[in-house]
Amino acid sequence: MGRRGRRRDDDDSQSGVGRCGGVPFRHTYGLIELRKYFDSFRLVAVCDRNESAAEHVAGVAERELGERPAVFDDFDTMLSAVDSLDAVDVAADTASHHTIAEAALRAGLHVIVEKPMGVTLKACRRMYGAAAAAGRTLAIAENYRRDPLCRLAKALLDAGVIGEPRLALDVSVGGGDALMHNTSWRALRSRGGGFILEQGVHNADLLLYYLGEVESVFAETSVLEKTLRRRGISADLQSFYSHRADDVFSTSETIEADAVDTGVAVMKFRSGAVCQLTMSRTSPGSHTSLATVHGSLGTMVMPASRSGIGPTVMLEGREPLRGEALLELVPDMTLDEPTAAHFGGSRPIASYGMSFEEVDRALVAIELEDFARAIRTGRRPEVDQEAGMRAVALVYAVLESGETGVPVKLRDVMDGTVAEYQRSVDEENDI
Length: 431
Ligand SMILES: NC(=O)c1ccc[n+]([C@@H]2O[C@H](COP(=O)([O-])OP(=O)(O)OC[C@H]3O[C@@H](n4cnc5c(N)ncnc54)[C@H](O)[C@@H]3O)[C@@H](O)[C@H]2O)c1
What we know:
Blueprint: E1 16-19, H1 22-35, E2 43-47, H2 51-65, E3 70-72, H3 75-81, E4 87-90, H4 97-106, E5 110-114, H5 121-134, E6 138-141, H6 148-158, E7 165-173, H7 195-198, H8 200-211, E8 214-222, E9 227-229, H9 235-241, E10 254-256, E11 262-269, E12 274-280, E13 288-295, E14 298-301, E15 312-315, H10 324-327, H11 337-342, H12 356-377, H13 385-404, E16 408-409, H14 410-414, H15 420-428
Parallel strand pairs: 1-2, 2-3, 4-5, 5-6, 7-12
Antiparallel strand pairs: 7-13, 8-11, 8-16, 9-10, 11-12, 13-14, 14-15
Helix pairs in contact: 1-2, 1-12, 4-5, 5-13, 8-13
This protein binds nicotinamide-adenine-dinucleotide.
């Protein structure tokens, strides 16, 4: 996204660009939601190599925002054709993030890019270098932590309500042989697929947000579900994904997966806390989901982002604390202005009753507004290239340890000393 109708060095931000698969469409709805409260962007062009997807999104933008963005099926063509562009919202599939972001940054545009920041750490480092060289903002569209219930959990942890965090358990097991969102790239290692990277990067961001830096990781990983199928899309996501075209599933009902789908990891934080992270999308039985932080004074059951259900705190000898009782423990907490606008005021909340679509749009709107304010003021966006890279590094620490069978230091993954799993991904993408 960016500033339209102005020179690229102006200090105001009023335009944007989307792209148009599933998440690009969600970002357009986020922009529509943002416009209710803040007039930060104008959507001047959309680009998808599948032009019909871009046309579909342009139609929705025209109806809801009152202006039809120009449609392109080639990013470089868009860059040279639209001289009013100031920023780009990159929500193409993961293996494309770095090439699109680098081209945009080199052209002097600000960039917000979907998570995971890049398909490997090498891709992330290239993006980092391009942003530094261009002196432009690079933000990561990490939405989970922006849920006001995750903000409440963080405030409670920081206030020491459960004492010193000692242990975290983070378990997410479910799925089967159906591919997430019917997107074939999610099966393929070279395209940034696999549950551990695609979904685990959200877990990684939240763990780092809540508990601070990670020192080391040991993991066992596998590809357990080798043939993945095209299936129906969940009702929540129908409206976002029904228009997209898939490059594999247009001719086949199955795809052979090579990206890791299962990981069991143990990680040690700089604080001394330890975490057990277990993720798999290969269990067709009941879904098992658990996220807890155990401290020296008590336990917190962590909120699932976008669920509307806030944290629960258990202290020895007391009834579990929920809702208003938790707000009383952080009397000085307030929600920032963009969050307050979308969630009914600056007073923190401990639950909400919005539909998935409503909360999803609100969180995208909040991350876009953070991006706009970073551009306008020159401050860093909340999830900047450092934070984006650290989350990718934590996920790759799991995958690298699983590949080599030995514990890895996070800093070695960050700087590329450990990169066995990523090597073929870098080679296939010419990174
Ligand atoms: N934050 C979240 O909650 C969340 C949720 C799902 C996906 N994502 C991320 O969003 C990104 C997109 O995921 P998706 O599910 O929308 O995938 P998708 O396949 O539905 O959409 C990606 C679109 O990008 C287009 N595209 C790919 N490369 C392109 C290029 N070089 N030029 C122009 N168009 C190009 C494709 O044609 C496709 O329409 C991924 O990085 C994914 O990890 C984030």
